[in-house]
Design a protein that fits this description.
The chain is an all-alpha fold and 126 residues long. The protein is built from 6 helices and no strands. Helix 1 crosses helix 2. InterPro entries: PGBD.
């Protein structure tokens, strides 16, 4: 499980922070909803369509996606999806604390940590 409950909770917090900073306080996204959103995005990556709105369109509807949440909710969540606090980012590339991957660093570190904790035997269980 690469998306741990702690990571999902962190993403939920940062996404809600971004929505609040953008004066969109109606978001109130939970970790469970983030998990659904990530699952939808992974499924969309496997079953690609030219435009993401096609997953909800009548002629090209994909129930696996469309039944998870409304298109408008999906668009709103995607609009505010954040993994880190933008107020703390260092933009100067010459600064010693500059991090090219700052915006997704929590995601990278969480997945990296999970991968390092996996033992080869656990991967063979399937």
């Amino acid at each position: 499980m690469y998306f741990t409950p702690q990571l999902l909770s962190h993403i939920s917090f940062e996404t809600n922070r971004k929505a609040t900073q953008s004066l969109y306080s109606k978001l109130a996204k939970t970790a469970a909803e983030i998990e659904v959103l990530i699952g939808m995005l992974i499924t969309m990556g496997v079953c690609e369509m030219p435009r993401y709105r096609m997953y909800w369109a009548n002629q090209t509807r994909m129930d696996t996606i469309a039944n998870c949440m409304s298109r408008n909710r999906f668009e709103t969540l995607l609009r505010f999806l954040h993994f880190n606090d933008n107020d703390k980012v260092v933009m100067d590339r010459n600064h010693p604390h500059y991090d090219r991957f700052y915006k997704i660093r929590p995601l990278i570190e969480s997945i990296r940590k999970t991968c390092l904790e996996e033992t080869p035997g656990e991967l063979q269980k399937c």
